[in-house]
Amino acid sequence: MSGTEAKYKRVLLKMSGEVLMGPQEFGIDPATIDRIARDIKEAVAMGVQVCVVVGAGNIFRGVSGAASGMERVTADYIGMLGTVMNALALQSALEQMDVETRVQSAIPMQAVCEPYVRRRALRHMEKGRVVIFAAGSGNPFFTTDTPAALRATEMGCDALIKGTKVDGVYTADPAKDDTAEKLDRVSYLDVLTKDLRVMDATAISLARENEIPILVFSIKDEGNFGRVLRGEGEFTIVTDKK
Predict the structure, then answer these.
(1) Which end of the chain has fewer CB atoms within 10 angstroms, the N or the C?
(2) Structurally, how many domains does the chain consist of?
(3) For 105-129, what is each residue's pLDDT tens digit?
């Protein structure tokens, strides 16, 4: 395999909203979102069709809102609107780098983005455009992990790539446990039974049922996304295949 050849043709990149904060405690860090946009541009230049789901933890988290006394459904809808804000910010960063990008929202808001239409999203990706899926699945009581697995399935993605703050899946939280060991490969069932906190259980089950591998890597360093797409660098793959 050459140094520029991608192992996957079509992928979904899943990021938490917290990733966009960079060194800040809240909101969107312009330098961080530009760096992520450069990574996505590199993937597109490699010929990879890319779609994206980003959370809203940097703006609002539904569960936290519900814990503070807000009705859970209302809190989740506020969180969904936060994902639209993040999606629009990422779209702006990508388009400033001459990467054609479309935002599709599960909650229709045609003044700012397209409604989610599967066939239209596929057509955008076939034309080399990045598609950012916003507003989750449009339903409360789900994290953005589940719609990420759902969209990856609907788009026929070869892999679901999860960008986090750590370079893979560990047996425990490496920030809290010095004995935590990094796993290079793990099965879907082990993720569920050992509570490895890769993604929520519904997302893992959906990926398993549709045989979509999940690659977990650190999105903190520039260039890591491209390295993972080439099968290089540090990451953990969640799959049942040997």
Answers:
(1) C
(2) 1
(3) 999 999 999 999 999 999 999 999 9
